[in-house]
Amino acid sequence: MEQSSPRLLNFDPNREPAAPRDAATVIVIRDGEAGIEAFCVLRHPRSSFLGGAVVFPGGKVDAADTAPVWQELAADPHPRSAGFVSLSADARALSIAACRETLEEAGIVPVDGTVADLDALRAELAAHPDVGGGPSALAASLARRGLRLTLSALVPFARWITPTAESRRFDARFYLLVLPPGQVGRHDDHETTMSFWGRPRDVLDRFQRGEIFLAPPTTRILELLEGAGSVQGALALAAEQTLDSICPVFVADDPPYLALPGDPSHEVPERRIAGPTRFVLRDGRFVSREASTLPGSPVASPLGVQVSVRRSS
């Protein structure tokens, strides 16, 4: 049996789990006139994973993010980054990947000085397709300008791993970054096709109205930031978060849902993040619901979803 599921997700509970790839995502925040705001980008609709979704900038860790040159061109990571370390990625490589991806996708990067020509720095990365605009180009560009990455500005917030039922899996570390002085943020018109600053509540309301699509980690982080209220509140909230991994379990029920740690359907008994323990598929969106408040209703998919959910017969 097959049912539609959010765009460019491919859940099959019977598949052999793929190994997740190390990734880093950055939640850039600032204080706006009406409270905290987060910088969001729209992924290109042709992206192989979450195409057309509104996300925080980020991407995969590259092998060159571990290059020795970064010992000189990057300051030490935030102390809590040690909680993100795995056998395949250390704290420095993860933080460097976070900086690189945020510069590429959002035009924002934390450095130990003022970048007078941020657009030029970004263009230099894009001009080196042989390295994918990656860390080698970034290292050379920073060295020419006498700049170093300020890795301590990346404050660890959460770690989400794609469910084993999904064909493409990522071990994504989420960082908070207060917008550096003099920087604004803008999408790259390549991987990201639109960008905006928004209050968490406003972004969530657009999601509920079906105007945009959010993946569950983005939804939950915005829900938490709404309660934080300000940049200082968000930084205080980050200090309280466990950095233990959150790997949702896909349950092919009617309707299908994703169970988080602490849910009766998850093997991990303790909660690892505040809020409801399930994301239930409703009207083409995974929405937060507690296990005890799940009304039964058919699944609809009005958002142009493109991938199937496979159930066991």
Question: C-alpha Rg, in Å?
Answer: 19 Å
Based on the coordinates given, report the CATH architecture: Alpha-Beta Complex
Number of domains: 1
The percent of residues in helical segments reads: 10-25%
Average the pLDDT over all residues and give the rounded result.
85
Number of E strands: 13
Give the helix tally.
7
Termini distance? 7 Å
Main sheet record = 7 strands, mixed
Write the layout of secondary structure elements.
Elements: E1 2-5, E2 21-32, E3 35-43, E4 54-55, E5 58-60, H1 70-73, H2 91-106, H3 118-126, H4 135-145, E6 155-161, E7 170-178, E8 192-198, H5 200-208, H6 216-228, H7 231-240, E9 249-251, E10 257-259, E11 278-282, E12 285-289, E13 307-310
Parallel strand pairs: 2-7
Antiparallel strand pairs: 1-13, 2-3, 2-5, 3-4, 3-8, 6-7, 9-10, 10-11, 11-12
Describe this structure in words.
The protein is globular and about 55 Å long. The N and C termini lie close together (7 Å). Strands 2, 3, 4, 5, 6, 7 and 8 form a seven-stranded mixed β-sheet that branches. A four-stranded antiparallel β-sheet has the order 9-10-11-12, covered by helices on one side. Strands 1-13 form a two-stranded antiparallel ribbon. Helix content is 23%, strand content 23%. The chain is an alpha+beta fold and 313 residues long. Strand 2 (21-32) and strand 3 (35-43) form a beta hairpin.
